[in-house]
Design goal:
alpha+beta; 17% strand; single chain; 504 residues; 3-stranded mixed β-sheet; 16 strands
């Protein structure tokens, strides 16, 4: 087993050199550091162990025998995905360039070849270090679903490893740590991680300035779409949507105009999963929301404002940067105090605010564009998790908050659905009894069976269509102005109250 590990260490060094992680002069150093990590006294002797087979190029194929050896030798306590990842981080600590090296290379490429080539370099490096686990991401299920609002995208997320029972047991023994404070803090760079925190020895960030403040730029390890990036505040401070947010979004576009950029809202229920650390999300992807068409157009000063054909309530602004910032600030202020009790929109409960905005900025044909998605996080007895949140009959598909990515028409559904869909497909194919359906899906299975109109109907198509329809309903639930006449009239009135003059 040791000889196999030695051989694959050499494959790993070849891989690291080929992908620009280490220079030729660093190979011996990196080899010795990894040998020491594995308590191996000497390296692979190629002359005594000649082979005609080509070395593997896939990083997970290369790492597997090394991690297996670490398990056999007791360096990995339990052979779980989480604990293998933790040891993998120790390996990449000896292969990943330092922050200063990456920043220097990034700046050189930016200055000589342009910003897009520079982000290509950083993105490819983040994949080469296995910080972005591309092989796991490839396992995500994905399809498009046609709707009256355009083709939305559905993913079932399999890239985040599910907790093994052995890891859950180990979590109880692990003393809770407040360092780093969250998964976005800059202290994650190079952090070894533990059973409750993913390893980040292969994680690197780049400094940027937004709104005159120190921010940093990284890629998401889960990469829900192409070049999924995360600009983050250097300080651990909560998200707060304000005029400063709009300024920072446009500052980012000036630095990286080939990306879109947006922010989750700043209130629970209507926001994303990490509200405690100010950050944005961006990348190189065209969402269904990008293609949404106006249903009504207004002028607010020099800015064009449009209500979009979209299940959530979106105002699209087009114009010059400074005009967009001021108009967005005015709409945010107007929305912050807006009330419409018949539509369940109440801005405050005593001093607790409920209205906020999810903003998204992009360059569209070299012109600035800003989408403002109106949000409200109020709850009531009928909808204790949120009035403008997936309603309870949809929780078997989607119960989590509707954040920035899903607002734009990309569903991120829980990994449990893959196995559950497989069971339901067997039921619809008469391969097993309906009683084997998970309890939370039993009503859905009955509905699906009624849609199996003939023997040629494909269960997979029926299931995917149903999931797509349910996600559209989720987005409609999250919309504050509903798609009926009452809702759309109220939406138009709100835009008028915000200074909008209807275009003829």
């Amino acid at each position: 087993m040791e000889s196999v590990a030695k051989q694959y260490i050499e494959h790993l060094l070849t891989y690291a050199h080929k992908h620009g992680l280490i220079h030729a002069m660093d190979i011996t150093l990196s080899r010795n550091l990894i040998l020491d990590l594995l308590k191996i006294n000497s390296p692979w002797n190629e002359q005594n162990n000649a082979t005609d087979t080509l070395p593997p190029t896939d990083i997970d194929t290369i790492l597997a025998p090394i991690l297996d050896y670490a398990c056999d030798m007791g360096f990995i306590e339990q052979n779980t995905t989480t604990q293998r990842d933790l040891f993998e981080g120790k390996i990449f600590a000896h292969l990943t360039p330092r922050q200063s090296e990456i920043e220097t290379t990034f700046k050189n490429i930016h200055n000589t070849q342009g910003i897009e080539c520079a982000t290509d370099y950083f993105y490819n490096l983040s994949k080469a270090t296995n910080y972005i686990k591309t092989n796991r991401i490839k396992k995500d299920l994905y399809w498009k679903h046609p709707t009256p609002y355009g083709d939305i995208e559905i993913t079932i997320n399999l890239s985040k490893p599910e907790k093994d029972p052995r890891d859950i047991a180990a979590q109880k023994e692990k003393e809770q740590s407040q360092y780093p404070k969250c998964l976005l803090c800059i202290e994650n760079v190079g952090y070894a991680g533990h059973i409750n925190h993913p390893p980040r020895q292969n994680h690197r960030i780049l400094p940027i300035t937004l709104g005159g403040e120190q921010w940093f730029f990284q890629y998401s390890p889960y990469s829900y779409y192409n070049e999924h990036c995360i600009p983050l505040n250097a300080a651990h401070i909560p998200i707060k949507i304000s005029q400063s947010t709009f300024v920072k979004l446009f500052d980012f576009l000036e630095i990286m105009p080939h990306y879109f950029i947006g922010s989750n809202s700043d209130l629970p229920i209507s926001g994303g999963s990490i509200l405690s650390h100010d950050h944005f999300q961006g990348g190189k992807h065209r969402f269904a929301l990008d293609r949404a068409k106006p249903t009504k157009t207004f002028k607010i000063g020099a800015v064009q404002a449009s209500i979009l054909n979209w299940p959530m309530s979106v105002i699209r602004l087009n114009g010059e940067k400074n005009d967009l910032i001021q108009t967005a600030t005015n709409i945010l202020s107007s929305w912050g105090s807006y009330n419409n009790q018949p539509l369940e929109i109440i801005s405050h409960t005593q001093n607790t605010p409920h209205n906020t905005i999810t903003p998204i900025a992009r360059l569209n044909k070299n012109s600035y564009e800003l989408d403002l998605v109106l949000r409200n996080n109020r709850t009531n007895n009928e909808h204790p998790l949120g009035i403008f949140h997936p309603h309870s009959h949809l929780h078997h598909i989607k119960k989590e908050n509707i954040g920035l990515i899903e607002v734009m028409g990309l569903a991120i559904l829980p990994g449990r659905l893959k196995k559950e869909i497989s069971i339901i497909e067997d039921i619809l194919n008469d391969k097993c009894c309906a009683t084997q359906a998970p309890d939370h899906h039993k009503q859905w299975v009955t509905e699906l069976a009624m849609e199996m109109t003939n023997k040629d109907t494909c269960p997979d198509d029926v299931i995917k269509t149903s999931i797509g329809n349910k996600f559209v309903e989720v987005l409609c639930n999250a919309g504050v102005f509903k798609q009926d006449q009452q809702g759309q009239n109220a939406f138009e009135d709100f835009v008028k109250q915000s200074g909008g003059v209807p275009c003829k």
